[in-house]
């Protein structure tokens, strides 16, 4: 389910509630790519995606497939946690989420409430 560029994943059986912020994820991917010293083209060769796709991910304009996330983790030698929020504290993450939620319309709020009721 997607609400204003925030992907919400719910796994009721595991009682997990994850908010996936594409913009933050993209910034983290770019951070680790540059940290490794990889050009966009070199990283794309390792990850096995087109440069336009990686650019779109880094800009927060698209959500990568699970297989792409796994290839990013392997290519950059980072954990999934590191890609999501390892270098930012809870306050930074909360501010990012809150800034996105301010853009929610009534439908988005209704969907979020429905998800939370089912947790």
Descriptive overview:
The protein is mainly alpha-helical and 119 residues long. The protein has a domain at 23-89: 434 Repressor (Amino-terminal Domain) (Orthogonal Bundle), CATH 1.10.260. 60% of the residues lie in helices and 12% in strands. It is built from 7 helices and 3 strands. A 3-stranded antiparallel beta sheet has the order 1-2-3. Strand 1 (2-3) and strand 2 form a beta hairpin. The protein is elongated. The two termini are 15 Å apart. The relative contact order is 0.19. Mean pLDDT is 77; it is low at 8-17.
Strand content: 5-15%
CATH superfamily of the domain at 23-89: lambda repressor-like DNA-binding domains
Number of strands: 3
Radius of gyration: 15 Å
- The CATH topology of the domain at 23-89 is what? 434 Repressor (Amino-terminal Domain)
Sheet/helix structural class: mainly alpha
Main CATH class of the domain at 23-89:
Mainly Alpha
Biggest beta sheet summary: 3 strands, antiparallel
Give the second-level CATH assignment, the architecture of the domain at 23-89.
Orthogonal Bundle
Residue runs with pLDDT of under 50 for 5 or more positions = 8-17
Order of H and E elements: EEEHHHHHHH
Shape: elongated
Strand order of the largest sheet: 1-2-3
Helix content: 55-70%
Distance between the termini: 15 Å
What is the structure about, briefly put?
With 119 residues, this protein is mainly α. The chain has helices at residues 22-36, 40-47, 51-58, 66-76, 80-84, 90-101, 106-117, and strands at residues 2-3, 6-11, 16-21.
Task: Provide the fold topology.
Blueprint: E1 2-3, E2 6-11, E3 16-21, H1 22-36, H2 40-47, H3 51-58, H4 66-76, H5 80-84, H6 90-101, H7 106-117
Antiparallel strand pairs: 1-2, 2-3
